[in-house]
Amino acid sequence: MLWSVSNRKGSQMRLRQLDRRVRRLEMAVAGRAVNIPVLILVEPLVPHRELRARERLVVDRFRDTGSVVWGLERITSEPGDDGQSCEPGGCIESILRRFHQICHWRTISGTCRMCQGTAVANGKTGNGVNG
């Protein structure tokens, strides 16, 4: 009887140690979790054509809301061109402005969700000049 009681205590101690180790591991992994935004490709402003020799498609990431990145495909023949990217929370106004002109939501509701919170939504450029 004495052996089984001490064996049980040893098992409980090992379980507590294992539980502590698992908790530490979970905390370490949770701290490293990274949210990867979803990339949504929008319809091209210019219809695609057949690619010529040395041409390829790149994606210009023109609007980044943190959880969603909006991209637009573009044809390039420049070897170093990997597409443009804006900063998180920002936009590339020149691309967004062109897209804003044909925005489906703008024509239906009068509000463009993609441009919301940018200078383009207000009809202005980054320097305050009306667009």
Q: Overview of this structure, please?
A:
The protein is an alpha+beta fold and 131 residues long. It folds into two domains: 1-33; 38-109, no CATH class. It is 34% helix and 17% strand. The protein has three helices and three strands; from the N terminus they run αβββαα. It has helices spanning 2-31, 93-101, 104-109, and strands spanning 38-41, 56-64, 68-76. The protein has a three-stranded mixed β-sheet with strand order 1-3-2, with helices on one face. A hairpin with a 3-residue loop joins strand 2 and strand 3 (68-76). Residues 1-5 and 127-131 have low confidence and may be disordered.
Question: Topology, please?
Answer:
Layout lengths: L1 H30 L6 E4 L14 E9 L3 E9 L16 H9 L2 H6 L22
Parallel strand pairs: 1-3
Antiparallel strand pairs: 2-3
Q: What is the CA-based Rg, rounded?
A: 27 Å
Q: Helicity, in percent?
A: 25-40%
Structural class: alpha+beta
Q: Which strand order spans the largest sheet, edge to edge or round the barrel?
A: 1-3-2
Beta fraction of the residues?
Answer: 15-25%
The helix tally amounts to: 3
Number of strands: 3
Mean pLDDT: 78
Question: Quaternary status of these chains?
Answer: single chain
Give the total of domains. Answer: 2
- Span between N and C termini? 87 Å
Overall body shape: elongated
- Uncertain residue segments: 1-5, 127-131
What does the largest sheet look like? 3 strands, mixed
H/E element string? HEEEHH
